[in-house]
């Protein structure tokens, strides 16, 4: 389903996802366990529509992405990479096909970039296999929690291709480069404990239920903080990741000049003194068009 970007994500019968929003937390749950939650064509259309709606309309203060069944996600449904054809139905010229395919890959990359660029933190709750494209997706999340049976595999090498939807640019910022190279060249599994050891995941929980509960608990805690301060923190972390220290210091100074909030800080101090959650305004919906 290619839903309008600003449709209400909570009222649509999605093919690949269940979406609930409660207490400031959006829970996006993959719901095709019988297919190991592979990323079919509907997946690539639905995920950016759901996240775009939550982001643009400020429907939540944090997002949790989880799954169902034995495995989190078995990665790309290869039907997504069908042979290109011209409007007559004939196979396309291979050079023109290559030019077109480049833009197709960009469109797939943008699906996961929406997680990286969302105004609110995105937490992945992973059980079982996180394979191929699922590594691309979870590497674009802010925080990763896993169950003890979880494992990560850069599967693309095992099917004769190079991972292309975000694994390498992001994974190289998350874990030592040597581990990226070993995973990429061999296609070996990385266990949950090894993933934590090398810094890929924040925490290992006992089982699927525990990891989802922990992710939701963290998201609810984030939702009690000032949304503007959380959004600013995400912007600054991403900017520092992609720029020099000098540039990042300058950017945070510019951000604070425009968006530092004395009232939000005062409410935070008052709430702490009164041992309660702060009462902060939500982010505003984004203005699109005129």
What does the model show?
With 290 residues, the protein is an alpha/beta fold. The protein folds into 2 domains: 215 residues, 2-enoyl-CoA Hydratase, Chain A, domain 1 (Alpha-Beta Complex), CATH 3.90.226.10; 47 residues, Lyase 2-enoyl-coa Hydratase, Chain  A, domain 2. It contains 10 helices and 9 strands. A 6-stranded mixed sheet has the order 1-2-3-4-6-9, sandwiched between helices. Strand 2, helix 1 and strand 3 form a beta-alpha-beta unit. Helix 1 packs parallel to helix 2 and helix 3 packs across helix 4. The longest helix is centred in the middle third of the chain and has 24 residues. The chain starts with 16 loop residues before the first strand and ends in a 17-residue tail after the last helix. The relative contact order is 0.12. The N terminus is likely disordered.
What's the layout of helices and strands?
Blueprint: E1 17-22, E2 25-30, H1 41-56, E3 62-66, H2 94-117, E4 122-126, E5 129-131, H3 133-139, E6 143-147, E7 151-153, H4 167-174, H5 177-186, E8 189-191, H6 192-197, E9 203-205, H7 208-223, H8 227-242, H9 245-259, H10 262-273
Parallel strand pairs: 2-3, 3-4, 4-6, 5-7, 6-9
Antiparallel strand pairs: 1-2, 7-8
